[in-house]
Amino acid sequence: MATQTSTTTSTSTSTGPLSLTPHHRIPRGPVTATLNFYQPPSDASTPYYYVEAPPPGHPQRNFDDAAHEVTIGDIRGKESTFDINTHAFGAVQGVASAANRQTFEDDAAVKEVYYPEVEKLLLEKTGAKRILLFDHTVRLASPGANRAPVNRVHIDQTAKSSEQRVRFHLPPSEAEEALKERVRIINVWRPLNPPIAAHPLAFADSQTVPDEAMVGIEHRYPDRTGETAAVKKTEGQEWWYWSGMEGDERLLLQCFDSEKGARVPHSAFVDPRSEKGAGRESIEVRALVFG
After folding, report:
1. Is 36:152 a contact under the CB 8 Å cutoff?
2. DSSP strand E in 93-198: where?
C-alpha cells in the first residue's frame, strides 16, 4: 500500500545543510543524569504550549520544569528483551536505507526516499494493515537550531489528540471505521550523524509510569488546539537509552495504543560523560498505525 502523507503545521523541518561532526568517544552503560519533569503553572491554570509565536503578552508555555536525577539504563546488548506492545518502545537493527545526508536536507526528498522505508519497516514490525505517515522533524543540537532536541519528558499524543489525529487526516467515513479497530501512533527515530555521542534519547518502560503521572497540555497551533502529555516524576519509573545508536538502527516509540494502552514518555538528556563539542542530529517520523 502506498504511504499516505499529510504534513501539518506541527512540523518545521527545513534546517539547511546538516553539519558533519567529528568522531567523539561514545558513552556506554548506565548513567545518572537530569530529566525535566512536569511542574504545574503557579496559578493553577490549564497548562498550554504555543507551537509557533505566542500572542502578545503570552509566554510560549505557562508550566515549569521539575528537574530530577534519574538512573538511565542502557539497552545496548539486550535490545530483544523489549517489546513495543508491552514497554511501548522497540529497537530494530540492520535496517538498510537508500537515504543519505542530502536526503534529510529537503522535505520533499525525505518523503520520496525515506517515507517508503519507514512504512515498510512499520508494516513488518507491527503487523498493521495500514500506515499513514503524517509528519517528521529533523532535530539539531547546535545553538540556535530551528528544532533542537527536547529536554523535557513528554509524550507526543494523548488518547484525545490521537483520535483528533485520525479525524484530521482521514475523511469522516474512513475515520469512523478506522477508530473501530486498533489505532496506534508510533514515532520512528534514527540518528543522522551516527554514532550518537551526545544528547541521547531517554525513554521509560510504559509499565512503570502510572496514568496519574500524565498531564494533558494544550498544544496550540494557529488554526487548532491539540494535546500532548507532560509527565510527573513518580516512584518506580524505569528509564532507558540506546548508547551509540548507529545509522542502521531505528528506535520505535509508541505514543498511543487504543488496544493495549502502552505509551512511552521520552526526553533528550545531557549525558555528563559526553565530550565537549559533541552534537546530535536526528529525524523522527510520526505514523498512524491501523490494525
Report:
1. yes
2. 130-140, 154-155, 183-191
